[in-house]
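Each field is listed here:
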Amino acid sequence: MLTALTALSFNNTCNTHHTHHTRHYRYNEFKLRIINERITEPATTVYRNGPLIDLCRGPHIPHTGMIKAFSVTKNSSSYWEGKADKEVLQRV
């Protein structure tokens, strides 16, 4: 994994350069679109919680172990960027 991203300790935030994000998220076309179209600064914040590294200011909770259980009660679909000619995504 990338040096700047692996330098993050468990449950931490870090500013990393745009090129690190494009390499790290090369498998995810939606993350790449966000990086290329919406991030205007040369560096942005990522959040790491264990093995998950995401584009997020985080943290939302100190540790995911605090969540004992959850139930999905609703789901729906939506279009990417709310545009009917874009991909359909699943919301939970």
Observations:
- Residues 1-10 have pLDDT under 50 and may be disordered.
